[in-house]
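A.,

Following up on our hallway conversation. Structure tokens first:
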């Protein structure tokens, strides 16, 4: 059955190419027949590195000459006619395999007019692109480093090439664990008051908490990172960390809540420095490290 399915896909693709080749060759061979325009839409990754990556020495910036798929591994997009909302082309989430620095969509056989193009990268399930909101944190989980692009295109014979920038939708929370004792086996985090969804203007909405558990926290140091949607307007996000000793199901310490603001395409950094006298909690704020707590807690 699998072989038959693969053969069907190959034959269907060959037939599609043959029909279009015949159509275009016939329109080129007939002087009175006008060939339809082919619209070329390029998707580019705008946010290849975080805005403040140069401030965080512990995080290495990405090489910005890498191909599109180094940032967006799977892609889904939809092109709709603005007036009647008809979907003229749609791609379900698919792996990006090209080594090019942009992803090209060629569209033909559609009338001139205004169209809405929506594209999403790195999302775990087929989103309802026709809906007004797109999920970022399903079931209070981190999910992925999601990219989003949306624009209105005017397709005509005189304007046949377009570029759509794909923007990162989330920030990155980094927790640096330094001089951790061997007895530290797990760190649980809860990040509250971040956006559950974004709309077509990339505005976050829906108040949700994101939970994540880290078990690779072996001494002497570890870097724990979480993709998180922006803090909701008018609120502060809260970070709560719970520390676990080996073979324990309850935390030996729940650290004081830390208020911070996470933003799209920005890194927020917290540092836990274990000393003989306890735990120092630092946060990178306003361009420098600031000590927030010096806790008399030992494991």
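Then the amino acids I'd put at each of the 299 positions:
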């Amino acid at each position: 059955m699998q072989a038959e399915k693969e053969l069907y896909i190959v034959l269907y693709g060959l037939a599609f190419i043959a029909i279009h080749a015949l159509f275009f060759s016939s329109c080129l061979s007939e002087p009175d027949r006008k060939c339809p325009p082919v619209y070329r839409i390029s998707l580019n990754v705008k946010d290849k590195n975080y805005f403040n990556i140069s401030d965080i020495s512990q995080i290495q910036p990405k090489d910005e000459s890498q191909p599109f798929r180094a940032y967006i591994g799977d892609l889904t997009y939809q092109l709709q006619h603005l007036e009647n909302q008809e979907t003229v082309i749609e791609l379900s989430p698919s792996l990006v395999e090209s080594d090019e620095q942009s992803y090209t969509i060629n569209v033909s056989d559609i009338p001139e007019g205004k169209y809405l193009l929506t594209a999403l990268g790195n999302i775990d399930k087929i989103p309802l692109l026709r809906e007004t909101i797109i999920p970022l944190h399903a079931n209070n989980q981190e999910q992925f480093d999601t990219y989003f692009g949306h624009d209105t295109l005017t397709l005509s014979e005189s304007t046949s090439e377009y570029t759509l920038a794909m923007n990162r939708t989330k920030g990155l929370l980094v927790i640096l664990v330094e001089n951790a004792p061997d007895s530290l086996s797990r760190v649980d985090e809860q990040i509250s008051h971040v956006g559950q969804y974004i709309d077509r203007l990339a505005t976050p909405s829906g108040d949700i908490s994101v939970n994540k558990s880290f078990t690779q926290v072996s001494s002497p140091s570890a870097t724990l990172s979480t993709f998180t949607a922006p803090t909701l307007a008018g609120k502060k996000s809260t970070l709560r960390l719970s520390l676990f000793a080996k073979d324990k199901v309850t935390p030996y310490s729940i650290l004081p809540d830390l208020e911070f603001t996470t933003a799209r395409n920005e890194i927020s950094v917290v540092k836990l420095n274990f000393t003989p006298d306890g735990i120092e909690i630092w946060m990178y704020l306003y361009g420098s490290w600031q000590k927030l707590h010096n806790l008399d807690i030992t494991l």
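Confidence is low (pLDDT under 50) at residues 1-19. Curious whether your intuition agrees with the design.

B.
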